[in-house]
Design brief:
Order of helices and strands: EHEEHEHHEHEHHEHHHH
Largest sheet: 7 strands, parallel
Number of helices: 11
CATH superfamily: NAD(P)-binding Rossmann-like Domain
Bound molecules: NADPH dihydro-nicotinamide-adenine-dinucleotide phosphate
Number of domains: 1
CATH class: Alpha Beta
Structural class: alpha/beta
Strand order of the largest sheet: 3-2-1-4-5-6-7
Length: 285
């Protein structure tokens, strides 16, 4: 696909995967607009322009797209990347307000942006929407329930949308990265209703997750996958990013569900932890 004069909008481009994606798209020839809640200030020294956007605000989403359309007259690619997580914790350790907050960014933020660009893409008769999912969108982990739920919502929404829009020249894909080295961990929200009953499990899973993050992929791995999806003549609905995510997808698809269940429980020592400390120690040896 020819990227000359193609206009791309990447949400959450101030750091991590969004920034790497914006840079990759610039290199591939797109004219790129990134976004940050801090606006142009977050774009200093970046080779793409930065628009102010808070994806949790209807008016902010509409204003960012209005500005882009006023300048360029069209939008060819939307990458819905902005998102965050809640630090590993029991599902009941997050209040309803916190559950709604994570959905408001990770899911409804993407819905707001999609609704804002679609009238323009329909008018053009073309467009690509690429949504940032996660391996947790097909393989949910314990103590990550809310985050995994938002990414499952992204998967379902994207699949429906791709069916609806295909005959209008618009395609939708989901990118599924594994752990990636970004500011994601530094930006995790702490659960807002911590319970003593989960203290030990929370600490153990947090430790395990930190190990995964240290072995994480570079954001460029995800950025390359976004570009591949954007340029594909016949894009797939789902793209895992990098070999680790691909391996997890393979496990989910081909391993019997019972084995996957046992593997997760063993890896995170979920059953040993539910027992008394002395019995757990025996089991772990
Ligand atoms: P970062 O924390 O580095 O980047 C998050 C980006 O999202 C920032 O640019 C931030 O911009 C933006 N953002 C957060 N909240 C909002 C909001 N309300 N409105 C607008 N922008 C917002 O994390 P990553 O790069 O790792 O995360 C990017 C995406 O990748 C997320 O959707 C995440 O779920 C997904 N992902 C990450 C993985 C990982 O291991 N890192 C693995 C799988 C998926 P600013 O603060 O400047 O407004």
């Amino acid at each position: 696909m020819n990227t000359h004069n193609k206009i791309a909008l990447v949400t959450g481009a101030s750091s991590g995967i969004g920034e790497a994606t914006a840079l990759r798209l610039v290199k591939a020839g797109y004219k790129v607009y990134g976004t940050s809640r801090r606006g142009a200030q977050a774009g200093q020294a970046k080779p793409f322009e930065m628009l102010a956007l808070d994806v949790t605000q209807d008016e902010s989403a509409e204003a960012a797209v209005r500005t882009l359309i006023a300048r360029e007259g069209r939008i060819d690619l939307l990458v819905n990347n902005a998102g965050f997580g809640v630090a590993p914790a029991g599902a009941e350790e997050s209040s309803i307000a916190q559950a709604q907050a994570i959905f408001d960014t990770n899911f409804f933020g993407l819905v707001r942006m999609t609704r804002a660009v679609l009238p323009h893409m329909r008018r053009q008769g073309s467009g690509r929407i690429i949504n940032m999912g996660s391996v947790f969108g097909f393989l949910p982990m314990p103590y990550m329930a809310l985050y995994a739920a938002t990414k499952h919502a992204v998967e379902g929404y994207s699949e429906s949308l791709d069916h609806e829009l295909r005959t209008r020249g618009i395609r939708v894909s989901v990118i599924e990265p594994a752990n990636t080295n970004t500011q994601f961990d530094a930006n995790l929200l702490e659960p807002d209703e911590k319970l003593e009953a989960y203290r030990e499990a929370r600490a153990a899973v947090t430790q395990k997750m930190s190990e995964f993050v240290e072995q994480g992929d570079k954001p460029s791995v995800v950025a390359d996958t976004v570009l591949k999806a954007a340029l594909a003549v016949n894009p797939k609905l789902r793209y895992t990013a990098g070999p680790r995510a691909g391996g997890l997808q393979w496990l989910r698809r081909f391993m019997p569900a019972g084995l996957v269940d046992t593997g997760i429980r063993k890896n995170l020592q979920l059953d040993a932890r539910a027992l008394s400390p002395s019995r757990a120690t025996v089991l772990e040896k």
